[in-house]
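User: Before I run my own analysis I want an independent prediction to cross-check against. Here's the chain; please return only the structure tokens and, at the end, one sentence I can use as a sanity check.
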Amino acid sequence: MRLVVDLNRCQGYAQCAFLAPEVFAMHGEESLLYDPNPVADGEADGELRGNVTRAVAACPVRAILLELADGPAGDGPGGAS
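Assistant: Structure tokens:
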């Protein structure tokens, strides 16, 4: 799983940080920090993938692209819906 966030499009709504705090975090009021290659082991992988998928879907400006091993999922720069 690989994440790309269009930081020019991101408006700092922080929905991603609320839904997947292990991957996304706000630094200040408008700056987003994120792990572009989140990895979990075993059972936690399914939970992490679910949290990240929900975070991608919750972004009001579609600034997050999630690439899975079998291709892109979600909206965002260069992504498919």
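Sanity check: The first strand starts at residue 2 and ends at 5.
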